Each structure stands twice: as C-alpha cells, then as structure tokens.
Amino acid sequence: MNAVTFVRATGVALILVCAAGNAAARSDETPPDTICTVLGTADRYVGTTVTVRGVAATEGKVTMLSDAQCKGTVSLSMDDGSTRKRDVSAFRRTVTGKGARADATVFGRFKATGDAKAPYAIDVYSVRDVNELPAAEGG
Known about the structure:
Elements: H1 2-26, E1 33-34, H2 35-40, H3 42-45, E2 49-59, E3 62-67, E4 72-77, H4 86-95, E5 101-112, E6 120-133
C-alpha cells in the first residue's frame, strides 16, 4: 500500500511541476520596447520584427505611433492583409476618429522609409493592449 501511495504522490507532483513550468514560460514574454529605444538605435532594428508600445493617432491618412518622452514618432503601415485581422482592424477603427488616440502595443517589421518627415515605419502584424485615450485638444 505504501508503494502505491508513493507512486500516486510522485505522479501528482510531476503533473504540478509540468503545469507550473508551462505557466512560467508564458509569463516570460519580453516587455515591449519604447519608441525612444527603437529610434535611438534604429540601424540595429531596421529589417527586424519589433514589439513597441506608444500612443497612436491618425492625422489624415497616416497613423503614427509616438512617445512624448523623446518626441519620437514612427508611422504605422496597415495593409489590406493585416486589416483582415480582428485586432488590427479594431485598432484602426479606434484611432481613425477625429482627435482619437490610443495607447497600444504594436508588433511588426521595422523599416526605413526614405522619407525625411517620417524616416521609419512599422508594417503592423498585430496589435494588443489597446487603451483608448481622451481626445486630443482641438479634436
């Protein structure tokens, strides 16, 4: 009887260890970079996938992700393929209203545009943690 109890206890302990290991692996997600960090070392990031957090707003047809700490901005490119995704289309609807802004984490490919006004852009693959902010002054 002691051997059976020991085997059961060992089995339960192994299951708990495996479950805790999986939960810990999920929480090891790296925090997003800031716009300031990415722009400060832009050459290092060009052509790579980035996860960045900032405040998004749309002016005309251009959606920008910005950071007030360094006054940095990056334009966001959301093509028809990415807007078929629920998270991206919901994000686009959130920030396209007049004066609308949202705090968001954007995942996509960082690229150089060659444009003097907006030298860098992110091809948006996904968006998460979107929090709508109060409308900007005058908007």
